Amino acid sequence: MAFASTASHTLTSGNVITEALELVGALAEGESPSTAAKTSIRRTLNNLIKLWSADTQIFAQGEYTLDLVASQSEYSLGVDNVGYIPNRILNATLIDTTTNSEIPLVPLTQGEWYALGNKTSESAPTQYYQKRNAGGIELTLNLWPVPSDTTYDVNLWLQYPYRDVISDSDDVYFTQEWYMALSFALAYAISFKYGVHPIERREIKEAAEEYYELAASYDTDGSVYLQPMTGAGS
Length: 234
Prior knowledge:
With about 230 residues, this protein is α/β, with parallel strands linked by helices. The chain has helices spanning about 15-25, 35-55, 110-115, 180-190, 200-220, and strands spanning about 60-65, 75, 90-95, 100-105, 105, 120-125, 125-130, 140-145, 145, 150-160, 225. A 5-stranded mixed sheet has the order 4-3-10-1-11, with no helix packed on it. A 4-stranded mixed sheet has the order 2-8-7-5, with no helix packed on it. A two-stranded parallel ribbon has the order 6-9. Strand 3 (about 90-95) and strand 4 form a beta hairpin. The longest helix is centred in the last third of the chain and has 21 residues, at about 200-220. The termini are far apart.
């Protein structure tokens, strides 16, 4: 018995689009979608990817280390330092670089942050508040108390958005177990554009949900893609 020597199958956006069109019966075997069709469906695919970025079960995450500045409470997290615009901070710890100790920081809600009486008090930070600015331009981290010197770093565990697909050759930003779920979810999303019969549409939806649940149960830690990221900035 012979087996292939690889297990590195990847899926491009062009593959997903073709698969979805075949599933809704809009593309016969061997046919290729038109440029206009690919543009329209790629827009839907990117919308779907952004929607899935909000799912608490499937998200990409990475680590980032932030150098703190004495007497500075607010830090912007975005393309200029992190390399991308995070969706949110999942976890944060304070690192004392003189002792190499690390302690968890307590997250504050918006109400708790604005209820703080003195936001300029300086010491070793113990709490943080995160704010996603309008339009998703950046994520802002606010620390309290304000760091009193430069001996502290903050280690952040960030949720970040899935990458867009722009061309046919762009790989989709999901691990392999999600390929079927993504293809069927896209097929269901475009079924409205292609006038798929309601019964067939329901069957596609049921299959998409089944594949989604199966893929979601694969990773018990709750994340689809884990890529440690390190860096420093302020």
